[in-house]
Amino acid sequence: MSQLSDSWNSFPPEVAAQYLKTYGHPSVSSKALLVDVLRQLTAKVATPEIIDLGCGNAQLGEYFSEQDYHCAYTGVDFSDVLLDAGRRALPNAKFVKDDVNTLEQIKGRYDVALYSHVVELLSAPEDSLAAARSIADVIVIRFYEPPEFDRDSIELRWLDVGADKQVPYLRRKMSRDYYRLILSRLGCSKVDIYRDTTKDQIHVLHF
What we know:
Layout: H1 2-7, H2 13-16, H3 28-41, E1 49-53, H4 59-66, E2 72-77, H5 80-89, E3 94-97, E4 110-116, H6 125-133, E5 136-143, E6 153-162, E7 165-173, H7 176-186, E8 190-195, E9 201-206
């Protein structure tokens, strides 16, 4: 398990700064959809507090700025090298080193707890979502692998971190039944689903 944790600290700094920008496979259209959804959710809030869980190098926070979506941005990740890249990119934002599975270091309240292509990477998604529920009024999930599978499965995959090096990471394909069970346990009363032109989906969980 420590080897999996070390995966996200294996980027050279110059690659960490570009990860999911020019390096990787960004889904630009679903990022634009995400911003539209967030604008709707926070339209009545002067400066919404957004906590980006599993923020990596804060490429999403940078995108918010590019799209003139003004918010108080907090990024959370356990990768020092990616957090350092985020701090350089967004010097006025707040960053917290923490395990997104547990969120033990997070205090206060947020308007939106955001997972962007992160739930699929968690070893304990139910625990993480329960922790997010305790700190935010609304949870927004941007899925790369929407929870529409017949069976829940976890794959061990390999991440190219640059310098001809690959490290392992987990990719979850969540079943419909497991997702519904999690939502039921969280006390979720409604889910708004926004579908992208790609397979990406954005789910807004209301309580």
